[in-house]
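Try it yourself: sequence plus coenzyme A, in.
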Amino acid sequence: VHIPLTFVLENLADHAHLGPTLARLHAAEWGHLYNGPGSTWNEELARQEFADMQREAIPMSILAIDPSTDALLGSISLIADDELHGFEHLTPWLASLFVLPEARGRGIGSALIEAVMDQAARVGSERVYLFTSGQQGYYEDRGWELIDTASAHGHAVSVMTKSCTPATR
Ligand SMILES: CC(C)(COP(=O)(O)OP(=O)(O)OC[C@H]1O[C@@H](n2cnc3c(N)ncnc32)[C@H](O)[C@@H]1OP(=O)(O)O)[C@@H](O)C(=O)NCCC(=O)NCCS
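Structure, out:
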């Protein structure tokens, strides 16, 4: 396995050919969470969502890329609505943070979060929201605060928030 020493952050809108790869990875990681009654999210829909991502506006996706091979290392999205029942009044949402297993533990996840917080601040947001079904500790270690618990497609999730205004980070 080639282990990269460095990574660069790029906008998905500038690397649109990676959309289908992202859709496959994300469907494999999170598909089970959405396989419930009344839910139809799958790789095909993920591909469509990635095709609709913007460059300097919400929704957007940011990629981590190995500059020596152009291989995808990870991604994150900033979206207006993450379809969490009861929380539709909150916006925007950090969503689908994913780092490839062989690239973990090198700060890529943290860098992707920081990039999304910068972008959220740039489009005028004061805080960002997320929900997670297993990584509450990861976000708490990075200054996120638990504000509620909820159920997403039958799975217990933690709803969290963090200010994205530069002075508070
Ligand atoms: C969570 C994830 C994005 C982290 O990516 P990463 O690039 O390894 O993150 P970083 O390098 O910034 O941070 C890694 C550190 O977080 C720690 N960590 C990972 N998961 C954690 C958790 N649930 N609770 C606390 N710490 C955690 C690691 O042990 C590591 O610690 P170290 O730096 O002391 O060795 C990656 O593991 C992943 O893609 N997981 C599968 C998808 C997922 O769970 N996404 C988030 C859910 S919303």
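One thing you can check immediately is this: The chain has four helices and seven strands.
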